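Work Package 3 (structural annotation) set out to generate three-dimensional models for the target panel prioritized at the project kickoff. During this period the team completed the workflow that converts sequence records into discrete structure tokens, so that structures can be stored uniformly alongside our sequence database. As a representative example, we reproduce one entry of 307 residues exactly as it appears in the project archive.
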Amino acid sequence: MNRPLASTVAPQAAAAARTGLAARARLVLGIFKLRIGVLIMVTALAGMAVVPGGSVTFVQALALALCVLLSSAAAGAFNQFVEAESDRLMPRTRARAFASGALPRSGAWLLVIVALLVGAVAAAAWFVNGWAAIFTAAGALTYGVVYTLWLKRRTAWNIVIGGLAGSFAVLAGAAAANPQIVPLAWWLALVLFLWTPPHFWSLAIANEAEYAAAGVPMLPVVVGVPRAARIVHAQTIALVAASLAPLFFGAGVVYAVGALAGGLFFLRKTRALALAPTRRTAMASFFASMVQLSVLLAAVVVDAALR
């Protein structure tokens, strides 16, 4: 009589164990902010693509992509490790692994994070070149140290300097192809620098009350939501203007189409945000920033392939 029950319970227990293991894996992977890391990795590949006649092998390109991804993951994990107390104060972030206590804020985890960064930088130096490794390290340290430890709780302009992390990824890719950085790569790095503030400030406007409650001086907390929305729109105008400058340094038609299409779409959403600063328009602006950057990076790669 017990055999049918046992045959039912065993598969259920195995399924529950698999579910628990998958949940644990998602929890651990969540601390590394891999979605942001993948985006940073793509910017590095775009930086590599804009270098005309660059000498980079498939192995070097793959190595740099993985090194940038891993260094970004280390910076993201360090950010969550340091910001656990602050994350507990915001509904959007209180379920994060370190904030919730699901993972301990132990020295062992800190050692893993540091080892991940050191390993990524060392691999970039070994498989690619020294300049690529330096820019890879600079991007991670800008986000992990300059932004997280130094600026985030001190100034409303924290994310402006923090935006250099994406710029360094572009330069790492360009240096992999040619250590002498070409003008197109510098312009693309500037575009990434200008993209970060309206991207992040849109999200900050949508979550202004949470940042205020946590005591984080994000721009909308300091200057108010209406003014912050106008600044986002003005910053996006500067971003789109800068994204067109590469046309004077060798970028082609495909790039022009991508820059205009993505830029105009983003501007439309930030204008709506400036006219009616609500959570809905702020999130629309935030997602539009992702679309704009994705379209631009795709245009960079396709344009370079057609040259």
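The chain is about 80% helix and 0% strand.
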